[in-house]
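Side project, low priority. Logging it here so it doesn't get lost.
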Amino acid sequence: MTACAIEEAAEHEAVRPEPRAALTVGAGGSYAARLAGRGDALFAERWTLDGPEPYAVPLPLGQPEEADTEVAPLADGRVLVHRRVAGLRSFSLLYPTGPGTGELPLGSVESAELRLLPPSPDGTCAYALAPGESSTAVWLVAGGAFGPERVAEVPGRCSGGVWLDRTGRMLALDRERDGITKAVVVDLERGGEVTPLLQITEDSNDRLLLADAESGLLMIRSDAAGHDRLGWGVLGSLRPARFPECLRLPDAAVTPFAIQPGRVLIPESCAVALRIDAAAGTWVGVWRPAGRRLHQLPSPEGWLAGSGLWSREGVLQLPCTTEAVTCGVARLEPPQDLLPPAPAMEPAQPERAGGEPHGGTGTAPCRPVPLQQAPLTGRAAPG
């Protein structure tokens, strides 16, 4: 993945990771968690977002957290903490206990490289990704019966991590093999069975950034055009991915972070929130596939950049913290697009660096997103 638009003259520049959000929002949007600090002392902090007003509960322990500690909320309000301790990766659950903080150790994993995956949609389990030299392990680190458990071993070096269903079974990862990265689906209930997900062209790097299980809308990044482009597709559809020109901003990184839920069977009408990073700062973008226009909005004061969620009614909720309001949520109602009937998606024609269609014959070399090969259930997919 890349966090910025790559200039055509620098196609082979090393790929950089997408920026991570300053606040991790859990399944269902009831809770969120982040590392907060008083001076140099860092501690986990849980946000409650589903009440009349948001509020934060600090979860400090006797020893401050390190800067590389990861935190993630569970649906019951406990916060998972991932620490590096004496060469091991240690996991605990934190929860408020009156005036103090309770801690439930879950165990540890021996791994040189490991990071938490986005919160599982079931809200009860948490997973971590541990890339190795020739394969990548998926660990269940919370919600198991006997501590951390290796649940899948995927050939190749994997990054990313996007959930494709509501149960926490189907996990999409960006897998690098032979210098090419393709998004694949890992079925955690079938021993880590791997199936293809994205195949824009044979030699392109195709990554999945975000997905909505209800509508099937996918946000992807691919260099099939000779440079990285942000695009979209539909889970379960035979139609190819598309790469709108409006999502390509000069000298700015555009990263999707939230998709409007509740738009079953009409993915083209989903609103997508995007983080825009440039030399002038960070602000918010809103885009709909059928609207074909990127609305750029000033970010609210103190926005925890890259974090947020949509209501089903289309209100964008952005967590913020300032000196005056340490826990707040700014609610934005973006401009409404006049949505025409969704047109049939034409086969994508990736451009070369010089702007000439790839192949030059008028026949698109792109293959459709072959998501129908993955054993996904529980959602009616548009054709």
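Brief comment: Residues 1-14, 342-368, 370-375, 377-383 have pLDDT under 50 and may be disordered.
Revisit when time allows.
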